[in-house]
Structures are given as structure tokens and as C-alpha cells.
Amino acid sequence: MTDTGDGFGAIDTSKPHPARMYDYYLGGKDSYPVDWEAAEKVISLFPSVKTMARVNRAFMRRASQLLAERGVRQFLDIGTGIPTEPNLHQVVQKPIPDARVVYVDNDPIVLRHAEALLRGTAEGRTEYLQADVREVEKILEGAQQILDFRKPVALSLIALLHFITDEHDPRDVVRRLMEPMAPGSCLVLSHVTGEFDPRTWERVVQIYEENGIPAQARSGEELATFFEGMELVDPGVQLADRWRPEPGAEPVEALLAPIYGGVARKI
């Protein structure tokens, strides 16, 4: 199922890519000087962006593990990013060895790492599709080759929607992705917010936009609108590190990790 996709074959090192900048924040090595330069500008304004990236990854792991433990056996992860262990399939195939996972991303460098992403359990299945989240029909068509939409699917959009501005109607994108999925399917979201330091986040967004990357921070109330018509999983939309934290975990100050997370179930 691995698909290079039209126009996605060559790695463009002339401008930064959010997946490679994110990898840089996490301490990865799969980025280029143009990504380092843009990422360092963000770090100079918001030094705790690395902390926020780690908080976001931890939220992904906890949310995915919870859904797997509750019996969800199919996962569609859009905006996968460069592999950072444990990856989603490693999290969910531990409690459910036969879980099926489809990864989707639009950065060709992720395609180069698809082999690592596809090393799942013998019982389960992991596949990779190259596409932009706004290519809804392409994603759904490819995912349904692997996943059975007559049964619950977890749609994971981790730290992705803040790269889709209101101009491109991200709520409609999410609605169209969820529409064909069976009742009991779940939506997992995380999203940065500028609520706690609006001035800094205006400048961070500006850095991304100056590098050709549309971006938009949103409030917790705005993130909650993506879950309208669905049943929020307790504790609802929360700062990501406070969403079902590990026992004994110390909370991270909101200014250091201004990112919300939430999970909801399709009724």
C-alpha cells in the first residue's frame, strides 16, 4: 500500500517542513539545515518547545493505549511524522497483537522510514500511505484497503490541525474523515494553543508562515468544537500532560507545554 503519491516523491530541502522541525525538537536527526534554522528561531522565542513536543508524544501514547485496552483494533494515524519510538503501532499492538494501523503523511522523508513503521507484530498489520490530510478521498480509499470501516476505527490527528488554517475548514476535513466510520470509532486530537502567551504564539505562527507553513493556534474551546456530536472520553479536552497522566507524574506548567488533547467516541 506504500504510495509515493503524485508530487510527493522528491524531498524539498529548500524550505522547512513541519515534520522535520518536529523531529528536530524531539532530538531526531532526520532534518536539514533549512529545518534547523527555522526550528532554532522558534526555540529562541519559545525555548520549551522541546518539552511541549515530548508532552505531545506522551499524550499520543496514553490515548492510543487507552483505546487499545478498550478494544479498538484499527487505527488511522494522519500526520504520522518521522518515526520516534515507541510509534503508535508499537503501543497498540502490545495489548492487541492483531491490531491494524495505517499511517499517513505527506513528507517524502517519512516514506523513506516506512520500513521502520511497518515492522509490526506478525499477527497485526501496519501500512503507510503518502497523502495530505486534505486529500480526504484518497486517504479513505487507501485506508479501507486495510481497515474495515464497518467496525470501530481510531482516527489520530496528533499536532496536525494547527497546520490547517480556518481558510481550509479543518472541521469539515475531520467531519469527512469520520463520516464513513462505524459508531464506536474514536477521534484523537492534540493542538497547540496561544491562550497562555498570545504574543509569543503570534510570533511563533509568524515564523512558520514566513517559511511557507500555514499555522494557527486555537483555544481549548475551539478544539472542543472538532468533537461536536461525539461523546468525549473523560476527562474531556485538557492540557495534554493533564489528560489521564501516568500515576505520580508531575504536571507541566501550561506556559511550558501549551497543547491541548482530547479523545471522543462517535455515537
Structure description:
Strands 1, 2, 3, 4, 5, 6, 7 and 8 form an eight-stranded mixed beta sheet that branches. About 2% of the residues have low confidence. The protein starts with 17 loop residues before the first helix and ends with a strand. The radius of gyration is 17 Å and the shape is globular. It is an alpha/beta fold and 267 residues long. Helix 1 packs across helix 2 and helix 2 runs antiparallel to helix 9. It is built from ten helices and eight strands.
Q: What is the compact description of this entry?
A:
The chain is α/β, with parallel strands linked by helices and 267 residues long.
Features:
eight-stranded mixed beta sheet, 16% strand, alpha/beta, single chain, 267 residues
Number of helices: 10
Q: Which whole number gives the mean pLDDT?
A: 93
Spatial gap, N to C terminus: 30 Å
- Low-confidence region ranges: 4-8
Report the principal-axis shape: globular
Q: List the helices and strands in order.
A: HHHEHEHHEHEHEHHEEE
Biggest sheet details = 8 strands, mixed
Could you estimate the helical fraction of the residues in percent?
A: 25-40%
Instruction: Give the amount of beta strand, in percent.
Output: 15-25%
What is the rounded Rg? 17 Å
- Structural class per helix/strand content? alpha/beta
The total beta strand count reads: 8
GO biological process, one term: methylation
Organism: Streptomyces amakusaensis
Protein name: SAM-dependent methyltransferase
Keywords: Methyltransferase, Transferase
